[in-house]
Amino acid sequence: MTIDKDLKELVAREVQRVLPDVVQFRHERHKNPELTWQETETARAVAARLREIPGVEAVTEGVGKLGVVGLIKGSRPGPTVALRADMDALPVREATGKPYASCKEGVMHACGHDGHMANLMGSAMGLAKLKDQLAGTVKLIFQPAEEGGAGANVMCDDGALKSPDVDVIFGLHGWPELGCGKIYVKGGPMLASTSEVSIEVSGTGCHAAMPHLGTDQILIACRIVEALQSVSARLTAPTEPVALSITMFQGGTANNVIPASVKLRGTLRTMNVATRDRCEEAIRRIAEGTAAAHGAKAVVDVKHGYPPTVNDEGATSYLEQVANAVLPKESVARMPAPTMGGEDFAFFLQRVKGSYFFLGMGDGRSGGYPSLHHPGYDFNDQALPVGMTMFVHAALGYAGHVAR
Asked: What order of strands is seen across the sheet that includes strand 67-73?
């Protein structure tokens, strides 16, 4: 894929022109975070800023409750390319020490959604200025409630991908483990499904000095936890990624009483729905069978959250071609393996083709860049030009790509 030298220089100038405003916008959003399904002020600020950009039209608030959608119409007919950013923050107490640190106690942008919003806003500024170079329409999607609220699904149900119908969608996420200025692309499964696992073991409690008069729910729960390791180790193919983790073990009120019940909590992550469903069946069989073998009962509840994030191979190949055309060759790599984290961008990809990529945050500091959801995490402003360049070129070039 070849991109005209003049167009690359034009985009580069536009990115640098808007960069100071984009950084300022990110810092404002970082300072004023809002939790999942509480992004009212954030949505208002996003919509107001979009309306200030000449060339951005049909700015609509309240899409999927709190989502914001805007359009940029090109000078010629063509496909509709959607670009997405999430808006919500996390219940984490900030420890970055930045001058623009969160002004809300116990709430911060520990996953970098402030950077995602800024990246899309800057891309909108650049694309609006370059609309004469655009064939088709760009749909700007600012989404609430990614952190467990399935905001993407709610926006889709409310028509975010309609009027005009989206042909392809792209999104990104800041990635601390990757060097700043670099990106990862990956076709097929990139992030896992997310399911919550709850198991309650109940039986007959008794005095710890007379265990023969009851059933030992602590012992039973321990054996269930141990046996569940076989779900990934022995009940699924070695080539199939599965992460089943029991993360909470609750039971007992006194050191001389065997409790009547014990609760276990955890998470199941897989790369496809069929494997997820087989694992759920195995969890139920192991927990119920282990408890029954000891004269007790286990009740299993599995709540499925996000499906796997599965990138379209064609859209990913296109994104990779764009990256290789506009970024240094050493900055673009295929992600070697999927990650077991989850992302509700998956709901968009269930409805239209698209691709999600990772944008490097790492700055070479000793001990590594703070991880996602860490109190010290802060989206790296130095990565914004790369993210904006990718979004702008992906949108500008897509019509020519599909026409070939």
From this structure: 57-63, 67-73, 135-143, 76-86, 168-179, 354-362, 183-185, 332-334
Go through the domains of the chain in sequence order and give each one's CATH number: 5-192+307-403 (3.40.630.10), 195-304 (3.30.70.360)
- Per-residue pLDDT of 307-339, as tens digits, reads 999 999 999 999 999 999 999 989 999 999 999
Residue 324 sits at the vertex; the CA angle it makes with 322 and 330, to the nearest 5 degrees, is: 145
191-220 pLDDT, tens digit per residue, is 999 999 999 999 999 999 999 999 999 999
Q: How far apart are the C-alpha atoms of 173 and 387, rounded to whole Å?
A: 9
Q: Is residue 184 within 8 Å of residue 357, measured between CB atoms?
A: yes
DSSP H helical segments within 234-272, as ranges?
A: none
Q: CA 233, CA 67: separation in Å to the nearest integer?
A: 41
**403 pLDDT exceeds 90?**
no
300, 199 Cβ separation under 8 angstroms: yes
Distance in angstroms (rounded) separating the CA atoms of residues 95 and 110: 10
